Amino acid sequence: MNRDGRFLRNAEEEEAQQTATPSGEASDVLASWLRGAAVGDKKAFTAFYGATGPRVFGLCMRILKNHAQAEEVVQEVYFEAWRIAARFDARKGSPEAWLMTMAHRRAVDRVRAWQASENRDARFAAEAETVDALSAADRALDDLEHRRVRRCMKTLTELQRRAIGLAYYRGLTYRQVAELLQAALPTVKTRIRDGLSKLRDCLGVAR
Hints:
Helix content is 79%, strand content 0%.
């Protein structure tokens, strides 16, 4: 078997060969080659391949519409035929029908696998676009929220801004804030409470 898969004969040669050999006789010859292949006769299998290869390739091309893909499937079909030649039963059909059934199944499986891969890639691409869009929207909302907070913070007194910043952005306790600002603890608590109330009003947050 040529690995490059270039075994197509022209239409005239194929037609002449089919005309010269009666179908019943041709089937018997193919069956004898398969029996030879079943016991490891490589010459018999090469003859079987040469006689059937063009039609198998033609079928694969009609299904796959791709030369390289068709060649790969043909190689798979003949590898399987060599491996299971002993399973061929002439009572169930001709050698060529047996072979073409395998080729059709493998070609259709290849199309389905390719389509599944295409669908999966399209789905992943759509999901990635959605994630990117959501991330961009989140960033825009975050930026907008930050601008709103900064604007509202400017409406507070200096002590309120500093107290809230220390308590909520740096995580300090009220007592630590009071010590840093050198202010009485009750005063700091009041300023923070009043400042947060003013921020909620400015931001439109329901209490």
